[in-house]
Design a protein that fits this description.
The structure is a single chain. The protein is globular, with a radius of gyration of 22 Å. By secondary structure, it is an alpha/beta fold. The protein contains 15 helices and 15 strands. The longest helix has 16 residues. It has 2 domains: about 200 residues, Glycogen Phosphorylase B (Rossmann fold, 3-Layer(aba) Sandwich); about 180 residues, Rossmann fold (3-Layer(aba) Sandwich), CATH 3.40.50. β13, α11 and β14 form a beta-alpha-beta unit. The strands form 2 sheets. A 9-stranded mixed β-sheet has the order 2-1-5-4-3-6-7-8-9, with helices on both faces. Strands 12-11-10-13-14-15 form a 6-stranded parallel β-sheet, sandwiched between helices. α2 packs across α3, α3 packs across α5 and α8 crosses α13. The protein starts with a strand and ends in a 5-residue tail after the last helix. About 40% of the residues lie in helices and about 15% in strands.
């Protein structure tokens, strides 16, 4: 086990010296496309400006996002395996040598490894699990045996946590329902979604021809994996209805995934070729988002959809499905954008048309997501954990 800098240099972790213990260590970060990576980067980097020492514990150091970590953040290489005896033992060794006050995890696999490691360590930090998606949603996608085993593992590991942080009220209720953990042990905190980087990236030139001259077209934008969760077929069907009344409307869906072929077939079957574009994944969706006339979240389920928060932070009028968790809280029951039924293209089309014709003021939308700014939300995290005082 060693410490890796952003250049992947390895060195042995020094023995803890008096007064130099780590304040908080983050375990389970793995980067990659999607909102959770940005949220964790914001939480880690902002924490490093508010407390004395922050560590990121990794099993796999080959993560491009490491270059985006603040210089003050220490990267610690653990076992090469994310689970099993070596992962548990290396985490136990880290705890005994670095004496972290808090370890915060953000993935189920990391939760289990940390819960097991604390059983063997002579130093036990405060154990905090961050939960971003309803547990029942993950369990439903598995067969009966795997569902039973995973539910038992989750219930056991969550019982070992000192504190559980959920990103929405519904997620918190779901955790308590599945695990039996009392609500007082679960706190609801906003995601630290919005950072200055979003605004910087939003000002970059947008490569898409439909967005180069704002105002010429009414561009509807969606962002996400081309997967069943995002329910883009409903959005495409809704757009075909919008187009009957708004001939200058266009739809862009940013993202990549296994449903590309199905979606392209639907676009062609509805006669929408040239009106709908699926340009794939982009590292800077914000240059698109800032120029869109309307953002649509069509998901069948979510945790707390960061892309919806990001759209509002840029003042983009938005429409969202009233899926089980997230959008209703972010849009405050429809105050900051219409909520529509899941899988209802006619209702979604009406909401899009109304939003295009009567958009809410951009400044009002930006104010709605002020609690999701990284500095505000991270302070709430650290206060709740007990590392700083308000």
């Amino acid at each position: 086990m060693g410490i890796g800098t952003k250049s992947d240099k390895q060195e042995t972790i020094p023995e803890r010296q008096s007064g130099t213990s780590t304040d908080i260590a983050f375990f389970g970060f793995r980067g990659g496309a999607g909102g959770i990576s940005n949220v964790m980067l914001n939480l880690i980097n902002t924490s490093s400006s508010l407390v004395r020492r922050v560590d990121v514990l990794l099993n796999n150091p080959d993560i491009p996002e490491l270059e985006m970590l603040a210089p003050e953040v220490r990267v610690v290489r653990l076992s090469k395996r994310p689970e099993g005896p070596s992962a548990i033992w290396s985490l136990k060794n880290y705890m005994e040598r670095a004496h972290p006050k808090v370890i915060l995890t953000n993935r189920e696999r990391a939760n289990r490894t940390l819960a097991l490691a604390t059983l063997f360590s002579h130093h036990r930090p405060k154990v905090v699990f961050r939960v971003g998606m309803p547990i029942t949603t993950a369990l439903k996608r598995r067969g009966p045996i795997k569902r039973f085993l995973r539910e038992k593992a989750i219930t056991w590991s969550y019982g070992k946590a000192d504190l559980i942080l959920a990103n929405s009220k519904k997620v918190a209720e779901d955790v308590s329902y599945v695990t039996g953990i009392p609500p007082k042990k679960i706190r609801v905190l906003k995601n630290p979604t919005i950072s200055p980087r979003i605004y910087e990236l939003s000002m970059a030139n947008c490569p898409h021809r439909w967005l180069r001259r704002p105002g010429d077209l009414k561009v509807i934008l969606a962002i996400g994996r081309l997967a069943r969760q995002k329910d883009f077929p409903t959005l495409i069907r809704a757009f075909s209805l919008v187009l009957k009344e708004e001939r200058e409307a266009r739809l862009i869906i940013l993202g990549e995934g296994k449903e590309r072929g199905q979606l392209e077939g639907l676009v062609e079957g509805l006669g929408l070729s040239g009106k709908v574009d699926l340009p794939g994944f982009t590292h800077n969706p914000f240059s698109y988002l800032a120029r869109a006339s309307c953002f649509v979240l069509s998901s069948a389920w979510e945790g707390s959809p960061n892309v919806l928060i990001e759209a509002l932070s840029l003042g983009v009028p938005s429409v969202a499905t009233d899926c089980p968790t997230g959008p209703r809280e972010i849009l405050e029951g429809g105050r900051y954008g219409p909520l529509v039924k899941i899988g209802a293209p006619e209702e979604m089309a009406r909401a899009i048309l109304d939003t295009l014709r009567h958009p809410l003021p951009r400044e009002r939308l930006k104010e709605a997501v002020a609690p999701y700014h990284a500095d505000v939300a991270t302070k709430a995290y650290l206060e709740t954990i007990g590392l700083i005082h308000g």
